[in-house]
Amino acid sequence: MYLLSVTLTNFKTHRDRNFEFQLGTNAICGVNGAGKTSILEAIAWTLFNHRGSYKQEDLIRNGSGSAQARVAFVSSYDSRTYEVERCTSRGYTIFDPQLGERLNYSRIKDEIEPWLQQHLGVPVGTDLGQLFANTIGVPQGTFTADFLLSPEKRKPIFDGVLKVEEYRRVHKESNTLRRYAEGQVELLKVQLQQYDEQLQAWEGLDERHAAIGQEIAQGERQLTSLQQNLDQLQRSRQSLVAQGQKIQALQQQQQQLTLQLEAKQQARQLIEQACGRSQQATELCQTHGAAYRGYVAIETTLKALNQQNQQRQQLLQQQQTQQRSLDQQATAMARLQVQLEQRDQLQQQISTLAAACKQQKALEQQRLELGQQQQALTQLKMRLQSLQEHLGRLRQESVQTKQSLDKLDILQNSVEQIPALEQQQQRWQQQLSRIEAAQQFEQELQQLVASHRNDSSAYDQQAASALESLGELQQSLPLLSSDVLEQLKGAISTGQTLSQTTLAALESILADLSAQVDLPQLQKQLKTGQADLTKAYGNRAKLANREPLQLRLSELGAQQQRLQTEMTEIEQQLSQSEVVNQQLQQLEAELKALGDPNGRRQVLEEQLQAMAQVETEYGRLRGQRQTLEAALATLTKQIDDFADVEVELAKQQQLRQDSQAGYLLYVQNEKDAQKLEQLTADLAAAAQVVAELTQQQETLVTELGQLAVDFDPEALQLLEKQYGELKSQCDRIAGSLPQQRKLQTELSSQLESLRHVAEKRDQAHVDVKQKERVKRFINFARKAYKEAGPRITERYVQGISREADRLFRELLNRPNVALEWTRDYEILVQEGGNTRRFLNLSGGEQMCAALAVRLALLKVLADIDIAFFDEPTTNMDRPRRESLAEAIGRLKAFKQLFVISHDDTFEKVTENVIVVERED
């Protein structure tokens, strides 16, 4: 894998730049602040998802809305060229130039990072940001810092690089998997016990299912016999019912015919009445037909006269418009005549203003120069205000950074409690894992305490009885030694005390044990402890930001000092603004006193130039006036042709009013008269329908009489009674069968369920054996992970040490030296018979040794053939700088190296030089 180019758009100090790279060593040179490190940061942000301690807004150039970086590279996976673009607002875009299409990847964790890991040539799951920060692109000034730390501080850094912690984390996290496997085995055993309990009712259900089947078969046979008898009765019953229904249908048909006949007779009467009205309307239309036709003719004449009257009104309006235009032209011509008379007066005024215009021009030039000075001072004032705001932001950020550091100091105590919290968490987990044994022990201890309590009570009674017997013995035998009696009493009292002490000790142990077997309480404590531990881990992660915050605080102090110096210089320049303002006010007063002679002369000259246009306009208006007068005369003649229209219109309106009454009578009766012919035909058809309905009614009465003679209602009632009794018996038997079938189905379902339970029981036996094998495998895997971490790490260290030894000799060009990277991540250099630690090496040797180890990490842990060096010659004199440059130039194990430098050291040893210039 190697890089081809990077394109930056509004990224930090770069507005729009493109940098091309070559194989071998690429020297990126330029003055301080030109943005050399920004190129490295853009590549890290785009390809490795690493932006250091910067915030997202810190990547955006001032005044821009978003920042964008586009990196083209050749893949280690398929040797093809790809372009990866990242924007602060739009996110990632991956482009395949050879196919000319965009890859459909958008989610960083799930899609982008796995794709980058594959094409960059690093193992899946590698933290790209950590790989870049600790190996590929070590930040400026920290290249040798990790190797100068104490072993305790070096360990977490390189453990993370070598992924040592991953084996421990897998071993620790797999503990939950172990508990889960054990829980699965126990769960299956409980299920087996439940399956056995469920299968106890199988035999009784099977017998009951067989008895229900026999009852259902007997009921079905009886139902079949009754159904045959019911079908014979049904056929006889249907014959009589059909005859009765036919009689009833004929009776209904007779009623309908009667109603239809009455309706048709009423309709015939209505048609007769309508024929009479139509005959009267026809006679009225014949009487007033002449008046109707005259009225229609008058309407046509009036329409034509109204059109002529509208034309006359239009001509009158045109005549008025032409007359108004003539009046307006006369007014305009008078105004133009007055302007022409002022021409000589304008020329005299222009000559008078010549001297004042010259003086105004000189004053305006002076004002322009002072205005430019004032504008420059205004810009300085705005710059001062911007610097003040920037200084305020820097001070605010300094306060926030100090507050963050103070908060991190507060978190230190929480982080120091992590070992104690981890031990407590482990104790609770051990208690949970042993809770069953503890519960059994508690039960046995409770039985022991109860037994001991009963024995102690009996012993107290026996001791009291013995003490009483000893008292009686002492009274009956006065010569008996009192010392012996006291010893016996003391022995009995000691036995009582010992019994009570033992009982108290057992009860105390039982009380302590009750807390240890309280599963909800232990789970609650474990959950609370886990939350505290997670919070402490988060605080430890936050403490990792302490050093970047301290560096940022130092940078903020330096920036504030630079801004303060620049503000002092600007304030000195702004002290001249008062003098410029006074001079500008004096010039403004002089210009105001002149009264703008240039403007007045320009107005006069424009007026004088406009005189030619005035003469042209005056001639045009005079010609236009003649045309308007001719058009007005034509309109007057046309209006005279329509002089008699109004008289004729009034005459025709009077004639229309005289014919209106007859016209209205004709119109009102015209529709009724037109219906006469149709009504006559409808009347004849209605009479024919009435005759036909009368004939149908007589035929229906005859047929109904014949059917009524053959029908017997009593026979139908007897059949209905017999049919009802049989139907009731069938319904009773049919109604009981569904319940029996339902019960049979339920029993079958229960039996089937029990068969499934038996199958599950058999499968559970198989699953228990499988789960137990899985549990044994998980325990074996956890043990393997626990033991594999140190061994694999040791192999990694040995391989890296061998590769670093070869690179170290190549960098120094001295074959008699040897480098060893030890198990505690310390660098030892052997030359001849002497062995030196990293602290005892010279500055150049330390840089080469650190460089060799970091490059060896890249070669062993990842298939990446590129590396970045940001100012590797910092704090070196020229001979050491040149020596290191030559050493880096001799490296042949990497396809591509990038060296950032502010001097010309690396320009001498490489042909691929990229010069970065500062942008305004």
TrEMBL record:
Domain RecF/RecN/SMC N-terminal: 331-916
Coiled coil: 185-270, 298-438, 553-638
InterPro entries, per database record: P-loop_NTPase, RecF/RecN/SMC_N
Keywords tagged on the record: Coiled coil
Keyword match Coiled coil: yes
Domain of life, source organism: Bacteria
Subunit structure: Heterodimer of SbcC and SbcD.
Recorded family membership: Belongs to the SMC family. SbcC subfamily.
Protein name: Nuclease SbcCD subunit C
Organism for this UniProt entry: Leptothoe kymatousa TAU-MAC 1615
Taxon lineage: Bacteria, Bacillati, Cyanobacteriota, Cyanophyceae, Nodosilineales
